[in-house]
Every structure is written in structure tokens, then in C-alpha cells.
Amino acid sequence: MIKINKMKKKLSSISFALATLFFAFNSSAQLVLPQPSPKASVTQTVGLTDITIDYSSPEVKGRTIWGDLVPYDKIWRAGANSATKITFSKDVKINDISIPKGSYSIFIIANKIEWTIIINKDATASADAYKQDMDIVRIMSLPKSNMTEITERLNYNFSNFTNELVDITMSWEKMKVTFTVKVDTEKQATENIDKATSGIWGIYNNSARYYLDKKDYDKALNYVNQSIASSDQWFNNWVKAQILFAKGMNTEAYVHAAKAKELGDKNIDGFFFKDAVEKALRDWSGYAPKTKKK
User: Fold this and answer.
1) Which long-range contacts (CB under 8 A, 24 or more apart) does 44-47 make?
2) 56-98 residue pLDDT tens
3) Where among 141, 156, 188 does a domain terminate?
4) Among 170-184, 202-216, 234-248, where is mean pLDDT lowest?
5) How far is CA 93 from CA 96, 101, 133, 185, 224, in A?
6) Has residue 25 got a pLDDT over 80?
7) Distance between CA atoms of 252 and 228, rounded to whole angstroms?
8) Where residue 218 sits, what CATH number does that domain have?
9) Is residue 97, in this structure, part of any structural domain at all?
10) Is residue 54 part of a domain?
11) What is the number of structural domains in the chain?
């Protein structure tokens, strides 16, 4: 009898443990199913600017969309679920209004004639949290209707893009609406070129200084000449003066030291070898070019 009771208790403990494990497993498991309005994202590079739109894509599902599911003349988040977000990697223009790089929300006010597309500074704003004073631009756009084809899922796409502009279109059901974003690729490209080339003279100049220290004066002179050809600076003229003096070309060394002094005195970013240049000019004064008497 005692053994039977012990066995019952043991079985009861096992059953309890299994039941606990079962419920623990089921409580931690997550049911993953397709979403009614799945997340979507589309990106286009326009010149040097990346434009990305993040949105949720609802279905028509036989419903009346315009004027019903999306009421006319009311603010709409231009998608489903959370805010529809547009991100610009560089500054852009819409309707000749400058928009700094960053993320923004898109809203639409639809009606039977003309739609208003809104770019709002609050990138996470819902329709309830929308504030008109946060609008950065409003675009009036005539929607187009396609009576023969239905776009079942809302989508955004890019078209007609060049290096300077792109059309962005929202399509859903039988309607589509478009707005244009302009970018300043030429200005951006020029800035990139300036940044890339502005440091070349410094690279050549540093190479010249390296070979000057190594006493390989011919290589040093070659590099400093390339540096000056790229950009005539006080610093590379001073390096050239030192190289020429090391090669025994004293008059030429004085000339470049004098030029370094002239350019350095005008340099707003600093003339940090000023004392060394002025000392060299005093020490090398005997090598200064002789002025011809009239």
C-alpha cells in the first residue's frame, strides 16, 4: 500500500512537471503570421543623394478606398500602421523649398479634384499627432486614375529620374499621385572634387619632407614640385627652400623662402614655421638675388 502511494505521488509529480513545461513552452512561443499591411521600403539613388521611403502596404480587399476608407479632405498617413517616412541623405528641394537632409513623414489629403501631399518634420507622427505647423512643404498634385487596372497593395516607386531630379509616385487601387524631388548633384560633385583634390598638395609635400629627412634630395625636389604645381602654398615653398639649400642651390633657396614668407603672412590658418622662415631669410641674406641697377 505504501509503495502504491509513493508511485502515485511520483506520477503526480511527473505529470505536474510536464504540464508546467508545456504551459511554459506555449507561453513563450510566438505565433508568426502574415501581416495585413506588411512593412515595405524602397530606395533610389539620384545623382549622389539616396532617397528612402519606409511604409506599410495595405490591400484593397474589395473595399471602397477613396472617399470611404480614406475619407476626402482629411489628413491621411499615406500608408498603414505607423507613419510613412521619407529619408534624404543630402539636402533636396521640393517645390523650390530647401529641405535639409534627414527623415520626415508623408501625409496626404485626398479629394475628388486635387490632392495635397505633405512633408512633415515629425518623422514618426501619426494622423492623430500630426501638427500642421511642423509641415516643411505642401505639394498640390492632380491624381491620375487608371480604370482598367487595380493596384491591390499600396506602393511607392521612383520614375523619370536623372542626376538632378526624380518623380515619386504613390499608387493604390485605381489612383496614383506624384511629386518631384530635386537634388543639387553638380554642387555636391564639385564639393567632393574640391575635398578630394585639396589634400593632394599636402600629400606630395609630406612625401618631399620625408625624402628631405632621408637626404634623398632629388626625390624630395620632385615631390615638392608636384605639390606646388597642385597648390602654391607657403608650406611647400618653405620645404622647397630647405631642399634647394641642401642641394647647394642657395639663391633659389632664398627665393622660395621669401615666397614662403610672403604667402605665410597672408595665411589666415596660421604660419606655424614663421620663425624658422624669417631666420633662414636672415641667415641666407647674402644669397638674395642681386637687383640690377638702372
Assistant:
1) 44/158, 44/161, 44/166, 46/158, 46/161, 46/162, 46/163, 46/164, 46/165, 46/166, 46/181, 46/183, 46/185, 47/162, 47/163, 47/164, 47/183, 47/185, 47/188, 47/189
2) 999 999 999 999 999 999 999 999 998 999 999 999 999 999 9
3) 188
4) 202-216
5) 5, 10, 19, 12, 43
6) no
7) 15
8) 1.25.40.10
9) yes
10) yes
11) 2
3 state SS of 180: strand
- Pair 125, 100 in one domain: yes
Q: Which residues are registered as beta bridge partners of 98?
A: 93
Domain contains 292: no
User: How confident is the prediction for the chain on average, in pLDDT?
Assistant: 90
Task: Please report, for residues 106, 116, 147, 239, the alpha-carbon distance to residue 123 in angstroms, rounded to integers and kept in the order given.
Answer: 8, 18, 33, 53
70 shares a domain with 173: yes
Same domain, residue pair 43 and 183 = yes
Is 178 found in the same domain as 71? yes
Residue 222's CB is within 10 A of a number of other CB atoms, namely 16
Question: Considering 188, 219, 237, which residue would you say is the last residue of a domain?
Answer: 188
Tell me which residue range forms the domain holding 155. Answer: 39-188
**17 lies in some domain:** no
Measure the CA angle with vertex 124, ends 118 and 130; round to 5°.
Answer: 50
Q: What are the residues facing 46 on neighbouring strands?
A: 49
Residue for cell digits 495585413? 36
Residues 105 and 205 in one domain: no
* Of 166-170, 198-202, 238-242, minimum mean pLDDT range: 198-202
CA dist., res. 205 & res. 207, Å (int): 5
Tell me: do 259 and 183 sit in the same domain: no
pLDDT band at 13 (very low <50, low <70, confident <90, very high): low
List pLDDT tens digits, range 148-175.
889 999 999 999 999 999 999 999 999 9
Q: Model confidence at 28, in pLDDT bands (50, 70, 90)?
A: low
**CA dist., res. 110 & res. 245, Å (int):** 78
Residue 5 scores a pLDDT above 60: no
